[in-house]
Amino acid sequence: MTGLSLSLSGKRAVVSGSSRGVGLAVAKVLASAGADVAINYLADDKRAQAALDALKEINPSSISVKSDVSTPEGAGRLITEAEKAFGGVDILVNNAHGRIIRNMFLKSGWEEHQSHMDGILRPAFYLSRRVIDGMKSRDWGRIVNIGNNMLIQPVKGYSALTSAMGALLGFTKNLAAEAGPWGVTVNMVSPGFVLTEEAPNTNEAVRRAICDCTPLGRLALPEDAAGAVLFFCSEAGRFVTGANLSVDGGRIMG
Fold first, then answer.
1. What is the pLDDT along the chain (254 residues), one digit of tens a residue?
2. What is the Cα–Cα distance from 53 to 157, expressed in whole angstroms?
3. Domain boundaries, the chain
4. In angstroms, what is the C-alpha Rg of the chain?
5. CA dist., res. 12 & res. 1, Å (int)
6. Which of 87, 124, 133, 220 is close enough to 94 for a disulfide, judged by CB 3.0 to 4.6 Å?
7. Can you identify the CATH homologous superfamily of domain 12-245?
């Protein structure tokens, strides 16, 4: 029996919100596995160019697309450019999340919850809708949504974020049920606290507290989340769909 491979040679991938952090790490891992990768960003041209330069060192066919994927036009532009460059899209990683607002529930309004729905669920919906017909026609596809482990272990002040992540998980499971017969798997990866560019905003005491209650004793790196995405996208993960995998060093189990 031939072993199941992590190779993505010949596959075409799109990663939204991927000029930095987890998104860029995912793009690099997929490219290292052999996929052609399109990265996406909203505004920072300089950062995006640096990300693309790094990605091209892994796979020269890589491209970047500036677009607001929370709109149908922006999502369509991203997928259209990827299709022009690669001939199709086999893998979609929904990582674009918009701005996260921290506010206690009694001080928040519905507009904050709606903002998170618009920043998290809308991009996943528009992009998935745009690629699903092509995946169905080829009897093969992978969609991976990037969540957060606060969905399972809520943190005070993040009601709006957690609610939107719950919606994203429901979307993941329902799309997995519909798309399974077409050879398309849909899964979710939910990291804990990840050491990214935003991490300096969290003080050392908080970081230490997270490490102390994490069995593996450290904070997550972007590459840790990217490894889980690679598994779901590869043949090694071909019989897993509708799953939500916590990537948090064992902080949350079950």
1. 467 899 999 999 999 999 999 999 999 999 999 999 999 999 999 999 999 999 999 999 999 999 999 999 999 999 999 999 999 999 999 999 888 888 898 888 899 999 999 999 999 999 999 999 999 999 999 999 999 988 888 888 889 999 999 999 999 999 999 999 999 999 999 998 888 876 556 678 888 888 888 888 788 899 999 999 999 999 999 999 999 999 988 888 86
2. 37
3. 12-245
4. 17
5. 27
6. 124
7. NAD(P)-binding Rossmann-like Domain (3.40.50.720)
